[in-house]
Amino acid sequence: xxxxxxxxxxxxxxNDIQQLCEIAGAxxxxxxxxxxxxxxxxxxxxxxxxxxxxxxxxxxxxxxxxSIAKRAAQLARQIEGMSHEAHTAFERQITEDETxxxxxxxTGPSLVLSDDVSGGETRALALEPRNIVNxxxxxxxxxxxxxxxxxxxxxxxxxxxxLNVWMSSISSIWDDFSTLPFSRYVTDQSDPVSPAxxxxxxxxxxxxxxxxxxxxxxxMKERVTSRRAKQSKT
Length: 234
Fold this sequence. Notes:
two-stranded antiparallel ribbon, mainly alpha
């Protein structure tokens, strides 16, 4: 079954796939698999591009993330400072839900999670108030960092989430089908030179002919930088 069938199109011709295989140094036999992978990524790009929810401006996104950060921080402080009686109420409910989970009963929304281990045994994982506070602080930090990133971006063209998600997927496809590095080398005019850059430029040109190659190369630059940062931490 096709991935996101309502957004599937015949984006890449046989000649396109042949060219992309040659650029990647991949044997022509993998052409059908490469086409399937590229078409699925293209379908996801169309879905994201068509979604009004993903068209929020940086200002609107910052406002939303700021609200989430403030609410998470407020709730974390409330839980940290709650009374002994409130803490006891949490413990009582957690104990009841743990018993239900271990008996295989439904708890509905709960601070106790069911974890199936080997041998069919069920284990109940309880989130204590300190765990909840840690999660809320994590939400606060994540939302705050998202706000900072939005404010750091230059004014003008908004962040293209669909293109950047597409580029992330393409980098994985490149790793699967090519032994060459996912490197970005371009001319002063942003014309692609390295094999991976040429691959990205051609693949996206077939998907969105109106998009300047310079924008694709910028998204690739960000992806290469992100990959290097992750690799340096491992």
